[in-house]
Amino acid sequence: SGQFFLLSGPCAIEGEDMALRIAEHIVKVTDKLKIPYVFKGSFKKANRSRVDSFMGIGDEKALKILRKVSETFEVPTITDIHEVSDATMAAEYVDVLQIPAFLVRQTDLVVAAAHTGKVVNLKKGQFMSPESMKHAVAKVTDSGNEQVIITDRGTMFGYQDMIVDFRGVPTMKQYAPVVLDVTHSLQQPNQSSGVTGGRPALIGTMARAGIAAGVDGLFMETHFDPANAKSDGANMLPLDKLEKLLTDLTKLRSTINSLD
Amino acid sequence: SGQFFLLSGPCAIEGEDMALRIAEHIVKVTDKLKIPYVFKGSFKKANRSRVDSFMGIGDEKALKILRKVSETFEVPTITDIHEVSDATMAAEYVDVLQIPAFLVRQTDLVVAAAHTGKVVNLKKGQFMSPESMKHAVAKVTDSGNEQVIITDRGTMFGYQDMIVDFRGVPTMKQYAPVVLDVTHSLQQPNQSSGVTGGRPALIGTMARAGIAAGVDGLFMETHFDPANAKSDGANMLPLDKLEKLLTDLTKLRSTINSLD
Amino acid sequence: SGQFFLLSGPCAIEGEDMALRIAEHIVKVTDKLKIPYVFKGSFKKANRSRVDSFMGIGDEKALKILRKVSETFEVPTITDIHEVSDATMAAEYVDVLQIPAFLVRQTDLVVAAAHTGKVVNLKKGQFMSPESMKHAVAKVTDSGNEQVIITDRGTMFGYQDMIVDFRGVPTMKQYAPVVLDVTHSLQQPNQSSGVTGGRPALIGTMARAGIAAGVDGLFMETHFDPANAKSDGANMLPLDKLEKLLTDLTKLRSTINSLD
Amino acid sequence: SGQFFLLSGPCAIEGEDMALRIAEHIVKVTDKLKIPYVFKGSFKKANRSRVDSFMGIGDEKALKILRKVSETFEVPTITDIHEVSDATMAAEYVDVLQIPAFLVRQTDLVVAAAHTGKVVNLKKGQFMSPESMKHAVAKVTDSGNEQVIITDRGTMFGYQDMIVDFRGVPTMKQYAPVVLDVTHSLQQPNQSSGVTGGRPALIGTMARAGIAAGVDGLFMETHFDPANAKSDGANMLPLDKLEKLLTDLTKLRSTINSLD
Predict the structure, then answer these.
(1) Across the interface, which of C205, C248, C251 has its CB nearest the CB of D214?
(2) Which residues on A lie below 8 Å from B254 (Cβ)?
(3) In this complex, which chains have at least 3 CB pairs below 8 Å with chain A?
């Protein structure tokens, strides 16, 4: 239909109630707007800055909640994996396996994800060029899996800032469908506190620019109470702002589609 | 009317015929699309990479051509200045004085431009943050001139590349109207040849992202024969592609205006 | 004694003969110069740019060669690990476990390495600030292991270049002994070929600057035939240039020691 | 003799007493250490972040103080120029004309400096690659002046930080003698206050790394009371620390000279 798709949900699966509550809201909004939707939730936070950061409620417990979300609302789900052994485990519960940006150069991990036959979402490393994602995509397709997407979550700019290079959208669309990870791209890493910062006031600006630049999908983390989320609270979208944002983006997409 | 405005023309005034020919074409297109238009042309190229690069046809000769364009088509004009003494000289011929990005920290130059009473267009230095443009704008307004605009032409990213930080648009709009310099932002400087490169295939992507991010105006250099232009041929828009591009951007702007 | 220490060897263990040949040469040189030496070799190359790049001769086979080098020349050895399960496996064969730069944010991996009781060498991520390594070091020491070192292998600068920030040396020495990875810091990643480039002619310059800036150790990959090495041939030091280089650096270190 | 040379003095000429007092101290130290010395002082601060920053005591007044320093202590002097007309004016008073980093692409200014016959010190733009300085040097030599030196004052790294790329030293030495501007390279620009910050605690580390990397000269701003200096107080070396620092660097240089 030419509509963009949406990967969205909380950063981490903190429990069943919060996952269902967030999913229910997003499903309602995306159904209304006819936006293809995939529920996102991490079963484990494996790469936090500090050793005392929240890492999860238990792998299997969280994966079962992802399955429950999927069954309850009839939506596909996505989660990120960090070791080869995660691939087959997570593939039993979700529809899309995501390779985190820091890990996208790990050949074994990418190939293991590809071999599950699930869709593979490769996050562009903060240290990689758009052009270099061609080789990452090839690790999936050369493993016999053509279902691969690329998500851009920004590129390092100095030590404590990230920037989105929109020139990369047309480049990476040559290799696979391209998603803009709006909320993570607004992070500000390496803060002295050991807690990553963010600029959530810019979510609308970045999402609009992404749609205008031609992305196929958007990735946005959301929570009904970002300030009390167990991770990434600094850059998530408050859940109650989602509908207005997506409504606007749908209109923008429609105009963009009419131009080409 | 909520329409964006356009600063456009050739990089350098190479002669009267080419200036009039380019202006005529752009005036026709922008009249049709109701886009407020300012004709742009440099009377001198003062900061070329190499000493043997083209620097101009003569200052006064070029400035007179700018005035002729203005009188012929009843459009305002803009040119860039490089020394304090250029300010009063250029102000006799044009409506907008532009401070080049490399020179935007030169207090004397900015203040001299401000004192002419003309509109001052401050290019954001490739080495400056959006936030730091607040101080550059203040150099104009503290000199008693409230007519100031900011143009973003990209930020250094490594030695041989530039990137546009669209987060800067809402930031800089707090200080002054913001223009995206689409064509220069696609430059790739510091090439070993001593001639700056570019990626003109991305002009449409960048212009769309700029409009979506909320810029007030666009800056685009154009030429009927970029390959034979005397400067910046690597990134100018071919003149015959301007109408389709602006038509698309006008539609996009209309949608963006409807959202807020 | 105030001497710097050296981590050196081939990028990958390509076979027993080459490993012993390289170790023998370096041991002879470092014995002569009284430089504490640790033999380095990867048992697996897990994060190559392309799926068709060389990844190793077999994990256990390579680890046994590392043990043989250790027993033959009575030197400690270091290798890099990529998954939690690698930690205990590799710890049976080597003395120092290295966390690759891309993986230094993976808490599980760092903690698993710490729990082996071996020395842990944390490579600073190309996307991390010197200050942020404080939290990475804490993941080791909070796990009850005080034997941790930090190795700087450069920081991303644009898409295709890396730069060493020598300001980071005094900063990181507050957290742990600091090593400069001379050869990897001269890499040029994200080349269009999918093969990382390098600037080996600058090895001497960088090593000297590192010693002058106060590093505790140096990391340098070397091979008797870089052009035919199975990985990182673009930036390794030819083995026959090692003695002259280390002799010079020893003199420099002696002067530096005399200043403080 | 193989000794490095020194460009040093206050950031700005604030008055005759302070200039003579600083010069006297440095001359005494450099005479003792046999370091060729050039007194540095700006007669005007033309590119401050804010319009209300100190800009100078008057051009001619400051230039006369530079001449007085030169005559009193029999040392050459250096000052920076910002417009073409400054070149001949300043050339009457000083021995070396410096082109500021922001202005090094201004062909007219560089050529005007070259035509005075004075030594020209080109500061590498914070936005320029080492390789691109080849073209800047050619603007001087093609104007018939072979007396040109290059000074590196760091390169932009993100918006609020600078980094020195020591790989550039051997590169730029192919074009001209290379100086490391130690104190400015430790600046942190674009701070929200509109006042550039700095990290003076790292002066020793950077100067040592520079000597080790093979620079021909050092540039260091100094003041007997940095906290009360009228500009750049955030990164100047306190004058009473100069002798120890230069003594150490002389020993280091001697060792470096012995290696090649």
Answers:
(1) C205
(2) 255
(3) B, C, D
Which pLDDT belongs to residue A165?
A: 98
pLDDT at A202: 95
Q: D31-86, pLDDT tens digit by residue?
A: 999 999 999 999 998 777 777 777 889 999 999 999 999 999 999 999 999 999 99
| Summary count for chain B: helices (H), strands (E) | 9, 13
Confidence band of C1 (pLDDT split at 50, 70, 90): low
pLDDT, tens only, A37-94: 999 999 998 777 777 777 889 999 999 999 999 999 999 999 999 999 999 999 999 9
User: In the 8-state DSSP scheme, what is residue C236?
Assistant: P
Q: Which of B164, B166, B248 sits opposite A206 (nearest CB)?
A: B166
Domain ranges (residues) in chain B: 5-259
d(CA B187, CA B101): 13
Nearest CA in chain D to B53: D107
Please state, in angstroms and rounded to a whole number, the distance separating the CA atoms of residues D5 and C154.
Answer: 30
By the 10 Å C-beta count (0-12 exposed, 13-18 middle, 19+ buried), D228 is classed as exposed
ipTM given for this complex: 0.94
In D49-100 the beta strands, taken as DSSP E runs, fall at 77-80, 96-99
Buried-state track C192-202, b at ≥16 Cβ within 10 A, e below 16: eebbbebbbeb
For tokens 């769309």, the residue is: B208
**Which residues touch A99 (CB under 8 Å, ≥6 apart)?**
A80, A81, A106, A109, A110, A113, A120, A121, A122, A123
**Sign of the dihedral through C-alpha B204, B205, B208, B214:** negative
Tell me the torsion sign for CA atoms B62, B63, B68, B74: positive
Q: At CB < 8 Å, which residues of chain D contact C?
A: 155, 157, 163-167, 169-170, 186, 199, 201-202, 205-206, 208-214, 248, 251-252, 254-256, 258-259
Beta-carbon contacts of C128 under 8 Å, excluding residues fewer than 6 positions away, are: A159, A189, A190, C104, C105, C136, C155
Among residues of chain C, what percentage have pLDDT more than 90? 85
Query: Is it true that domain D5-259 has CATH number 1.20.1250.20?
Result: no
Alpha helical stretches, state H, A83-201: 84-91, 107-115, 133-141, 168-173, 182-185
How near does any CA of chain D get to the CA of C128, in Å? 13
Which residues of B are less than 8 Å from D143 in CB distance? 51
**Which positions in chain C touch B157 (Cβ < 8 Å)?**
158-159
Closest residue in D to A159 (Cα) is D158
> Which chain B residues touch D112 with a CB distance below 8 Å?
none
| Encoded tokens for C9 | 């060897």
CA atoms within 13 A on the CB side of D175: 26
Residues of D engaging B, defined by a Cβ cutoff of 8 Å:
46-53, 55, 82-85, 102-103, 105-108, 111, 125-129, 131-132, 134-135, 138-139, 142-143, 155-156, 159-160, 189-190, 192, 194
Min Cα distance B37 → chain C (Å) is 35
**What's the rounded Cα separation, in Å, for the pair C67 and C60?**
10
In whole angstroms, give the CA distance from residue C95 to residue C77: 5
Judge: C161–B161 Cβ closer than 8 Å, yes or no.
no
CB D132 within 8 A of CB D153: no
Q: Which long-range contacts (CB under 8 A, 24 or more apart) does D26-32 make?
A: D26/D222, D26/D239, D26/D242, D27/D73, D27/D75, D29/D242, D29/D243, D29/D246, D30/D6, D30/D246, D32/D243
DSSP D169: H
CB atoms within 10 A of CB C152: 28
| Residue B1, number of CB atoms within 10 A of its CB | 7
The Cα of B159 is separated from the nearest Cα of chain D by a number of Å equal to 5
The verdict on a CB contact (< 8 Å) between D160 and A158 is yes
